[in-house]
Amino acid sequence: MTYCIDFPDSSTAVEWSLTDSGVTRKEVTYHPRFYVATEGGSLAEIAESIAVHPEVTAVSQERHRPGWRHDETAMLAIEVSTLGSIPRLASTIADVGRPGTYRCFNVDLSREFRYCLEAGTDPTPDRAPTVMELDTPPITKSGGIESMTVTTPGGETHCLERSPSTIVRQVERLIEETDPDVLHVSSAQVIPELFDAAEGTLRLGREPGYTQLATASTYESYGQIGHSPARYNVPGRVVADAANSFFLTETNLHGILDLVERSQKPLQEAAWASIGNILTAIQIREALAQDVLVPWRAWRPEFFKTAATLDAADRGGYTFSPDVGVHEDVYEVDFSSLYPNIMCTRNISPETVCCDCHPEREDVPGLGYSICPEPGYLPDVLRPLIDDRDEIKRRIREGDGDVDELEGASAAIKWILVSCFGYQGFSNAKFGRIECHEAINAFAREIILDAKATFEEHGWRVVHGIVDSLWVTPMDGREQTDLETVIRAISDTAEIELEYEATYDWIAFCPRRNDSVGALTRYFGKRAGAPADQASSYKRRGIEARQRSTPPFIVDAQLTLMKEFGRTRSPEAVCERLREFIERLQVGEIEPSRLAITNRVSKRVDEYTQTTKNVAALERASDQGLATHPGQDVAYVVVDDETSGRERVALVHEEPSEYDTVFYRNQLCRAAESVLAPVGFRRSDIEAQLSERVDGSVSAYST
């Protein structure tokens, strides 16, 4: 099967396919196409005017469905000479007449995905692709590549140094010897850097040269700033950029290959694609299978709603305020893929919610929206994903198959299922509708409240609940119905499996940092029967040990304090262990790299108005020619928090030899407070406990 496609010129596509004996190359003539439909306009006039355009190779009339609840209608199929001409011509046509007179379809598909759809080509490789990893330290603007670690498909590691020109030839030699199918790079910037450093021609692909597919860009998503690095292509090989791949970070190559098969997006595009991009591709496959074309711009306005309906609809899932404190014998249960299963069991789809054919129905609790009984397309998209993940999870439990492969596929599907709900409320979703988003939330609230009532009816107290998860413990003075029996009853009523997740010997729910109200997503606990000395035995959410910015040393310290708390339940004992970490810090025992803070920056360095540690790190990076864009990470060690400017921190790759003990002592105490706050022991109590014993050793004065 074809595993990547190159486009060497405007009318040619080259298919590269993996075989047991190597790789095959097939060159074909290719002209992409898009479609135009009209309401009140003239397709004949558009056809006559567009046919003479130099970038148009053919115009014909076909019949397709412009939407799920639409019959086939006449459309223009416009074939063009280059991929880049499609959005230009579509914009010209869409601007003719009144807004909405002409609508364009199949316009903004990614190039390899488009080719596979139009040519009927399956991009799933017949065999597992071989991978070469190219790992480089940060590349400065002027210094080029100074070193590189190359791991060949056979697992051999080569540390390359000396001059950039020497490294280039060593990389070329290793690629020629091992012939990898995938170049897994730590940053795609390594591609142009290698070509710039080459003295003469260079072959990183199976043919000479490289292509820049996209420039770097900064974007905002759900209030977070992200950065998408520039993307590059080399002929005949996939470039998988670790710095620009969510799925490489959250799954593995096996997981991405599973998504390739489901979405028909070739491996290189699937590697850099977002969750929503993959979900949309799966939806597009389902749409085209039913001869529904892909709208260019969403044309689905929100229905008129009364103020009362808006108030009822504009809410998320239900959450219960956690019972702050430490609880014994707690059971965690989760609804399996709650939101995707709601869509499937309640037939929620853009064309079924608030349908015109059943206006009298009131199916959505609290909102009164109707849901058409005719099967919706969205459940058809999601049901295979849900069923397949359930089967994969069963195989993992039973040890049936390669664990790495199964876990990669399970994680990849999980992220698609997690996003499918939110994507219904995304204004630019190809197949979304805000009323679907609202209906899903309404059903979720009803399901979780019914589950709570059922647990309480059978002698179980809910100590916390978040949207699809509940933590329950036996009620004092009440007889409990067997938990499995209660779970089965709730599952049958909801038509969605409520699954046992874990049992905890104890679990602690934290208050918010500045008051006694329970924090929804800050808790930790020890799994029942798990070894008390292993970090994996402790579940933690929201506290420092789960935050990506927390230095490794602080993470290890907090886990140790957590274990001590579980063993003794004594704030005093925890403070004694904390004292040990502080002393290690003060005598300079800690390797500075284990104190590195990793933060994502949201602006360019010149856009900040305050001098923070992040800004100091960005200024140091800029001085060294390192380009750090909004949305990217910066890693640094705090060396003197009392100063201002660049000297406040040192970048990790600078290998600092010192650190600010006062700053990191505060970080340790903050982590300790998270552990002890559930029992009412706050920062002032911790400091008072630490001050009760004075260290009179010589080491105490060494710093």
List keywords for this structure.
703 residues, alpha+beta, DNA Polymerase, Chain A, domain 1, Nucleotidyltransferase, domain 5, Palm domain of DNA polymerase, 5 domains, 5-stranded mixed sheet, 36% helix, globular
Describe the overall structure:
This protein starts with a strand and ends in a 12-residue tail after the last helix. The C terminus is likely disordered. The protein has 20 helices and 26 strands. The protein folds into five domains: 118 residues, DNA Polymerase, chain B, domain 1 (DNA Polymerase, Chain A, domain 1, 2-Layer Sandwich), CATH 3.30.342; 159 residues, 2-Layer Sandwich (Nucleotidyltransferase, domain 5); 202 residues, B family DNA polymerase, palm domain (Palm domain of DNA polymerase, Alpha-Beta Complex); 109 residues, no CATH class; 66 residues, B family DNA polymerase, thumb domain, alpha/beta motif (Ribonuclease H-like motif), CATH 3.40.1820.20. Strands 17-19-20-18-21-22-23 form a seven-stranded antiparallel beta sheet. Helix content is 36%, strand content 22%. By secondary structure, the protein is of the alpha+beta class. Helix 9 crosses helix 12. Its EC number is 2.7.7.7. It catalyses: DNA(n) + a 2'-deoxyribonucleoside 5'-triphosphate = DNA(n+1) + diphosphate. This is DNA-directed DNA polymerase.
